[in-house]
């Protein structure tokens, strides 16, 4: 059972995509993205739109195996540097993917790379993929960024689940997130009950929604907390503050940077 529900995730894919599309309408598509320095703004948008089409193809086919991205129609984006064509391509792909997700519903079995082999996984993943990369585009263009509190909170929760899955699958970076007696507390100061406690054990880490004293705490506005936890800004920016062992927070951020 996911936190926000299938319908909401589908709605957010469309809403976050529309906001991302607005950012590129009059932007310089060759501008580098500071939080994804290997990408230009155009490459960022193509990544998001390609991900939409790939997930949508998996859902439409009811695929039980991975679908090669180079075999997905239109996933490479439009040729040239026309912002209008790029915007139209992005919005169209998101709409097609949401149509497929809504038709399938949340519980249809499909291939995923993760722990949940249902269409619900792709709805949630694409909603957060789009919301976080919209932040990248906002940072690149100097635009303001805001996201609904429940979506921001669920972005943190999903990322914790992804890192835990990566650790269980033997990812070498995530494997280092261990060591008994240490803990990390995430505390949103502007939204009630938006708190997470990460505890490091000898065999790995566990997490839960809780308020508790920890080795290090990162606290501040929820949206800023989400951005820092996703490495979109520094932990001491945006009204955030670090209390306790900053090295442990950096240890986590450095080893959850895959993907």
Automatic annotation (TrEMBL):
Classification via PANTHER family: CONSERVED PROTEIN
Domain annotation Mycothiol-dependent maleylpyruvate isomerase metal-binding: ranges: 12-138
Protein's UniProt keywords contain Isomerase: yes
All residue ranges annotated as the MDMPI C-terminal domain in the record: 150-250
Protein name: Maleylpyruvate isomerase family mycothiol-dependent enzyme
UniProt keywords, alphabetically: Isomerase
GO MF terms held by the record: isomerase activity
Pfam families in the cross-refs: MDMPI_C, MDMPI_N
């Amino acid at each position: 059972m996911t936190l926000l529900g299938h319908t909401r995730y589908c709605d957010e894919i469309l809403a976050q995509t529309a906001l991302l599309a607005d950012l590129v309408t009059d932007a310089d598509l060759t501008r580098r993205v500071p939080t994804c320095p290997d990408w230009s703004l155009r490459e960022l948008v193509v990544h998001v739109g390609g991900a939409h089409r790939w997930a949508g193809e998996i859902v439409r086919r009811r695929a039980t195996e991975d679908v090669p991205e180079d075999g997905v129609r239109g996933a490479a984006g439009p040729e040239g540097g026309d912002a209008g064509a790029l915007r139209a391509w992005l919005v169209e792909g998101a709409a097609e993917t949401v149509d497929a997700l809504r038709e399938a519903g949340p519980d249809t079995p499909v291939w995923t790379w993760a722990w949940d082999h249902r269409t619900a996984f792709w709805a949630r993943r694409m909603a957060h993929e789009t919301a976080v990369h919209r932040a990248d585009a906002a940072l690149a263009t100097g635009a303001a960024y805001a996201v609904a509190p429940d979506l921001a909170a669920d972005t943190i929760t999903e990322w914790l689940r992804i890192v835990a899955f990566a650790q269980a699958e033997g990812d070498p970076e995530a494997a280092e997130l261990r060591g008994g007696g240490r803990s990390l507390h995430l505390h949103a100061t502007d939204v009630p009950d938006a708190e997470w406690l990460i505890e490091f054990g000898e065999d790995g880490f566990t997490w839960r929604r809780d308020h508790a004293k920890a080795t290090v705490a990162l606290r501040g506005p929820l949206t800023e907390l989400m951005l820092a936890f996703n490495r979109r800004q520094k932990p001491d920016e945006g009204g955030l503050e670090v209390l306790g062992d900053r090295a442990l927070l950096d240890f986590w951020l450095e080893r959850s940077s895959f993907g």
